[in-house]
Amino acid sequence: MADEFVYHIGTKGQPWGAEEKQQWLSEQHKKRSYVDDVVTAIDALKEQFTVECYGHLEYAVGQYDLFVVKSRQWHPELPTIVVTGGVHGYETSGVHGALRFLQTTAAAYEDQVNIVVFPCLSPWGYETINRWNPTAADPNRSFKEGSGVLESELPMQYLARLKTPIAMHVDLHETTDTDNSEFRPALAAKEGTVNTNWNIPDGFYLVGDADRAEADFQAAIIRSVGAITHIAEPDDQGNFIGVPMEQAGVINYAAKPLGLCMGMTNAAYVTTTEVYPDSPKTNPEECIVAQVAAITGGLDYLLSKQSRD
């Protein structure tokens, strides 16, 4: 672990109040366009898929329509799978991995599963390259009823309206060097706690749900992604980000109690991907393709398992 780094906002040991959160917000600036990068790509999918606006975010710093892309031909007898990207807007390959799956691969599975993809749950975070939303809330700790975080509540409400069981959910994420240089120090400052940075795994790994571990499912995704990019090795203590490795390339978190996105359904097969785009061994394109491989690896396992059962 690295030494503690003290963030520049707030008083050490004291949680942020409204003034500190406003100071933080005032320092955030638009760096890229959600409309140009994401909405335009979604619009281009309308001939092949059904595109729906499932909600609207209205902040003083920006207004955003939220879009979900799903199979045009819906078959109630088939399993339904969910893909989420951009829960943390700064995790670029999560957004573009979800889009790339729709652009290149999803159609090959449409006669076997119903597909629901939320390409970018946190558009302000995407534009400002941020982990939090404008209220300094982390959407990936807010997938709980009554959290008040619309980035998290609105997709949950949409899935509830579908009234269909979910068989698989793959949530696409990244771990970047800014986790240590910005986001973990900011979180500790906000909560009034002590920050100690973690060793960022060099490569791809998965976070499974401790209550739905499904080791074979996770292993199938690791094999699929391993054909595209390198799988991370644990640190000297056998951990990824401070959590013991369960099997090669996999750790587990308790998804629902933590309010994680992968906990928002009761799907039997769930996972969160983590790529490391700052690794000298990879590049942004490879990270996007690795995200697609994670989805297809999970889908192939699901379909194989169902055919055997």
UniProtKB/TrEMBL annotation:
GO molecular function list: hydrolase activity, acting on ester bonds; metallocarboxypeptidase activity; zinc ion binding
Active site: 274 (proton donor/acceptor)
Keywords, sorted A to Z: Hydrolase, Metal-binding, Zinc
Pfam families reported for this sequence: AstE_AspA_cat (PF24827)
SUPFAM superfamilies assigned: Zn-dependent exopeptidases
Cofactor: Zn(2+)
Top-level taxon: Bacteria
Family: Belongs to the peptidase M14 family.
Name of the featured protein: Peptidase
